[in-house]
């Protein structure tokens, strides 16, 4: 996640919403290895920023596609966390 919106999209003012997908298939959970600092090499759920004008479902599908090249269907909402703080990746 670079903190820069996709081409043709505008960014939310801070704080910005984000989302992460829990992708499960055959009792396995999809994880991605982070490439950017400060979490380079750490494993985590695919996800990132919800872009301005985008729904959470659209953002989940886009982020999973960008990070894994997989197309997913969102079957259900798992959890919600309301937290405001600095993003260590983007400052």
H/E topology pattern: EEEEEEH
Helical residues, percent: 10-25%
Structural class by sheet pairing and helices: alpha+beta
Number of helices: 1
Strand order of the biggest β-sheet: 1-6
Mean pLDDT: 86
Shape: globular
Structural Rg: 13 Å
Give a structural overview.
By secondary structure, the protein is α+β, with helices and mostly antiparallel strands. The chain has one helix spanning 56-68; strands at residues 18-20, 24-25, 28-29, 32-33, 43-44, 47-49. A hairpin with a 2-residue loop joins strand 2 (24-25) and strand 3. The protein is globular and about 40 Å long.
Keyword list:
two-stranded antiparallel ribbon; alpha+beta; two-stranded antiparallel sheet
Task: Give a brief rundown of this model.
With 91 residues, the protein is of the alpha+beta class. Helix content is 14%, strand content 15%.
């Amino acid at each position: 996640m670079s903190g820069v919106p996709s081409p043709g999209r505008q960014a939310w003012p801070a704080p910005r919403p984000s989302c992460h997908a829990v992708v499960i298939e055959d009792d396995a959970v999809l994880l991605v290895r982070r490439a950017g600092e400060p979490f380079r090499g750490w494993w985590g759920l695919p996800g990132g920023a919800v872009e301005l004008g985008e729904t959470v479902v659209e953002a989940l599908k886009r982020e999973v596609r960008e990070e894994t090249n997989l197309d997913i269907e969102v079957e259900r909402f798992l959890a919600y966390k309301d937290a405001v703080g600095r993003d260590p990746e983007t400052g």
